[in-house]
Amino acid sequence: MVAEATGKERRSRTLLVLVAACYSLVVLSLLSTQVVRREHYASLARSNRQTKMRIPAPRGEILDRQGTPLADNVHQARLTVARSRAHEGDPSLERLLSLLDLNRESILRRIGSSREPDRVTVLRHADPEQIAVVEEHRPVLPDVQLDLQPRRRYRFGSLASHLLGYVGEVGEGDMGAEERFYQPGDMIGRGGVEGLAERQLRGRHGSRLVEVNAAGHIIGEIPEGYTKAERGVRIYLTISQPLQAALETLLGGKRGAGVVLEVQNGDLLAAASSPDFDPNEFTGGISASRWRELNEDPSTPLFNRIVQGTYPPGSPYKIITATAGLQTGKVRPTTRFSPCTGGWRLGNRVFRCWKPEGHGSLDLEGAIAQSCDVYFYQLAERLTLDELEAAARAFGLGKATGLEIPGEASGLVPSVDYYDRRFGPRGWTRGVMLNNAIGQGELLVTPLQMARAYAAVGGDGHLYQPHVILARENAYGVTEFRQVLRSREPVCDESIRRFLRRALVAVVSAERGTGSLARVEGVEVAGKTGTAENPSGEDHAWFVAYAPAENPEIAVAVIVENAGHGGDVAAPIVGELMETYFRWKHETDQAVQP
């Protein structure tokens, strides 16, 4: 009996010890939770009802040289749902699509492919009526959230679209090292200044700490968690909005391009590629069908003909052939070759002049003024290909000008090596020289290159690097101006430039000059017409000029594709554009006078 009692006592004590140990563990756990790790668990509790939200940085404005905004920002209302509800069949999402009468298939397809991690955008730009519907039905739309975000706006629609570029939704290839800055659904600059200056324009995002309820709706904000967003850098372009608008109006309905350069520093006062596009279409997320339509359009509106379009230069190139002849002593201003009778025979082939009945006997100035092909055929027979190539490269052809816009083409200046590679050693004849001499054959230039070459002839002889960005101003008011850069050597001797300037004046002012339709009342214009043969269609019409002839301020190049004779089509455009420029300049000068 004593042994049995002793066993019961041991079991009781053991049970008591176990109960005490368990109780102690509970006490210690509570002590750890409520005292030792109180702040840790409080932080976890707060994180369950507090959310850090990004404040998107306003994108920097893009303005013209007078400070007129070309691209700025407006606020858009965006509707989002939690990632967990972004799928077909979710009652809240389905109700939202029905209430707003949205295209269900399109929205479901888009949000299904969205990579947004937390909240998925259902509608990027909700209008006031849609906002009112959402607010009215707030109780039956759990987790539908409405917030304001800056949206890019191009104030003049398609104006300068190829210079400005556009903003589009980021893709996987855009993230990379920038993953901390961009999130799926963000917008990023593409093409033009928007793409070039993306890092400066995008600014710096801020953040705010908000308190949310069980449905995920914001019910308050915690001031200590606020970080201000910094807007992007404000960028001033060299272009003038009125002049840009005039150029685009003159090119309207045509395929082609135009460039207006400031002779003394290379600033781009206007530049247009036609047809163009409206970058506002991209700011809300362009549809796949519209993107396909733009890319498949045979008129290629997204193609930047200013710097990417390469064309045979036609007769404006003849001043380079003349320069090669004068520098090598193969011709003088007074030199007369055999009279032009409408063609020139080389071997078994006859090279035609644009004027079937011929020009008769001309000196070099007359040949430039009347654009006689036969004269330049004969000059080409006296030159070597190396001499002609050297002159072309001295005028900046065959190499990108250095304009900030991405994707600039170099063009093509054929060399002996080029023809040997293409046709084999000695597999080509001097016929290529005759074509090159009048700006045809394999020669390819951009409108910007031709405007710069003529600016050098009319100006101090040097090639200036073109610029489209005039200045950058950050949020603190610090401004950085572009640097004026020019070539070390002039394009040719001053004596040759004096002759070329005289000949180019005759093109416009002489009774039989081919550029008479570019005349401007009260301003002497110097320039050259061109009709460039196009192997795949009608000829291209060129006119390249500068004015005033004695002390040039601007150089202009215009090409209209498949339009015929340059003197009939391109020259009047240049004339009207110059009239607009001098009128605009006069009004601007009057406005700044005290």
Summarize the model shown.
The chain is an alpha+beta fold and about 600 residues long. Helix content is about 35%, strand content about 20%.
Description of the molecule:
The protein has 594 residues and is an alpha+beta fold. It has 2 domains: 51-81 and 88-173 and 184-237, Penicillin-binding protein 2a (Domain 2) (Alpha-Beta Complex); 241-277 and 305-592, DD-peptidase/beta-lactamase superfamily (Beta-lactamase, 3-Layer(aba) Sandwich). It has helices at residues 2-36, 38-49, 91-99, 104-113, 128-136, 161-164, 172-175, 192-196, 198-201, 241-251, 280-283, 288-296, 318-328, 364-369, 373-380, 385-394, 416-423, 431-437, 447-458, 494-509, 566-592, and strands spanning 50-55, 62-63, 69-82, 119-126, 145-154, 166-169, 187-190, 206-212, 218-227, 234-237, 256-262, 268-274, 343-346, 349-352, 469-473, 479-481, 526-532, 540-547, 554-560. Strands 2, 3, 4, 5, 10, 15 and 16 form a 7-stranded mixed beta sheet that branches. Helix 10 (241-251) runs antiparallel to helix 21 (566-592), helix 13 packs across helix 16 and helix 15 (373-380) crosses helix 18 (431-437). Mean pLDDT is 88; it is low at 43-47.
